[in-house]
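HOLO CASE FILE
Compound: magnesium ion
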Amino acid sequence: MNWQVKLAPYSQVVAELKVKLRGMRAQFEYESSHSPIEFVTGRVKPVDSIIRKAEKKKIPLDQIDEQMQDIAGLRVVCQFVDDIYTVVDMIRSREDLSIIEEKDYITNKKESGYRSYHMIINYPVETIHGMKKVIAEIQIRTLAMNFWATNEHSLNYKYEGAIPSEIQTRLKKAAEAAFKLDEEMSKIKNEVQEAQRYFHH
Ligand code: GTP
Ligand code: MG
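Model generated. C-alpha cells follow.
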C-alpha cells in the first residue's frame, strides 16, 4: 500500500475542515461576540496507529475507508459546555458535509470517565481523480474535558492500555472534578450575564 497516496484525500479533508472551523471562530470575533470555539486542531491518524487499530478491530486494510472513522480527526475545544451544543448545531446546519452519526459522551460519559461530543461526518473532497467522500470524526469538548482526555491518553500510552485499577479510579474522580468545574464556570458565566442585563435596563 502506498500510504501517502492512500492518505492524501484525508490530509486534504483535515486541512479544509481546519480552515472552515477556524473561520467560524474568526467570524464570531469580527462580530465581537463570544466565540463558542476556543481552538481547533486536526490530524491524520499516523500509519502505525491505523495498522494497529485495523489489526485490533479486524478491519481488512482495503476496508479502512468505510470502517475506520477517525483517520481524519478534527477537535473543536470550547470554553463552556453550552458552547459545545452551539457548535454541534452549526455543524448540523452546514451544507458542505453530511452527518453519519452523533455520539453524546457528555450526557452519557464513557466508563473511563471520558466526556466529549463526537460527530462522524461524510465530507466530499475534490481530488485529482474526481470527488471522493471521506469519513471524518469531529470531537467537540470543553477545555476541562480536553485537559482530562489528554492526560488520560498519555497514561494509557504509558501503561500500554492497561492503566492500574487504582489509577483508573482516581482518573474517574478527576473526570468528575473536571465536569464540576465546567458546571461551576457555566453558573458563574450565567449569573454574571444576568447581573449585566439587569444593570443595562
Ligand atoms: P475507537 O475508540 O476509536 O476505537 O472507536 P469507537 O467506535 O469505540 O469510538 P469511540 O467513540 O469510543 O472513540 C472514538 C475516539 O474518542 C477515540 O479514538 C479517542 O480519541 C476518543 N476516546 C474515546 N474514549 C476515550 C477515553 O476513554 N479516553 C480518551 N482519552 N479518549 C477517548
Ligand atoms: Mg472506543
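CASE NOTES: The pocket of guanosine-5'-triphosphate (ligand 1) is lined by residues 70, 103, 110, 112, 114, 118, 149, 152-153 (CB under 6 Å). The mean pLDDT is 96.
CLOSED: yes
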